[in-house]
Write a structure and sequence with these properties.
The chain has 70 residues and is α+β, with helices and mostly antiparallel strands. The chain is built from two helices and three strands; from the N terminus they run βββαα.
Length: 70
């Protein structure tokens, strides 16, 4: 089972479908941005359970640090 951390950075009270944020797969560290509720659903369904990068994926800070050796 996948676990996700969802960060919502901005939400307009007048336009509840206008959300901006990031979905992070806790198991793989894979991160995907979104800018609507539909984009949030796509970001969750598009994450690869094996951690392989798919289009629109952002590298996590964890994976960047591990490549630097720290």
């Amino acid at each position: 089972m996948d676990s996700f951390l969802i960060r919502i950075y901005r939400r307009s009270p007048d336009e509840p479908e206008e959300v901006v944020g990031m979905v992070e797969n806790i198991n793989t560290g894979q991160r995907r941005p979104f800018n609507s509720l539909a984009g949030l659903c796509q970001a969750i369904s598009a994450t690869d359970p094996n951690g392989k990068k798919s289009p629109g994926t952002v590298k996590s800070k964890k994976s960047r640090k591990s490549r630097k050796g720290g």
